[in-house]
Amino acid sequence: MKLIKLPFKILVLPVIALIWLVCLIAKAVTHLSCYVIAPFMLVIGIVLISMLFKHRWTDVGILGTVEVLCLVLLFGVTWMIANMEDLNALLIRFVRS
Fold first, then answer.
1. Residue 7 has what pLDDT?
2. Beta carbons of 48 and 68 less than 8 angstroms apart
3. Cβ 37 vs Cβ 74: under 8 Å
4. Boundaries of every domain in the chain
5. 12, 13, 19, 41 — which has fewest CB within 10 A?
6. d(Cα 49, Cα 67) in Å, to the nearest integer?
């Protein structure tokens, strides 16, 4: 059985390296983008509150949508990184088996 798994284990090694590299780049980009997106979201939040007090509901809807999209973007990237790390761990366990 080990001889049957050997070619697959050899083929999985570059995939593991590629997934690790993608995770590393995604983590770096996420950390750097947080320094850009966080102040942007803070400004949007402040303007959103001022628009609430001025009763400009169209602007509140637009700014709220932009705020939610920023949150979904950050959550989606974090979710992708977590899933890629799980996949990488699964492949490493396959190689070690």
1. 87
2. no
3. yes
4. 38-97
5. 13
6. 12
Q: Quickly list DSSP for the chain.
A: -HHHHHHHHHHHHHHHHHHHHHHHHHHHHHHHHHHHHHHHHHHHHHHHHHHHHHT-HHHHHHHHHHHHHHHHHHHHHHHHHHHHHHHHHHHHHHHH-
Structure tokens at 66: 């932009």
Question: What percent of the chain stands above pLDDT 70?
Answer: 100
Tokens representing 62 are: 């637009």
Distance CA 92, CA 97 (A): 9
- Please determine, for residue 62, whether its predicted confidence score (pLDDT) is greater than 80: yes
Give residues with Cβ within 8 angstroms of 70, minimum separation 6. Answer: 37, 40, 41, 44
**3 vs 10: CA distance, rounded Å:** 11
CB 87 within 8 A of CB 20: no
State the CB neighbour count (10 A cutoff) for residue 63.
Answer: 21
Q: Is the pLDDT of residue 58 over 90?
A: yes
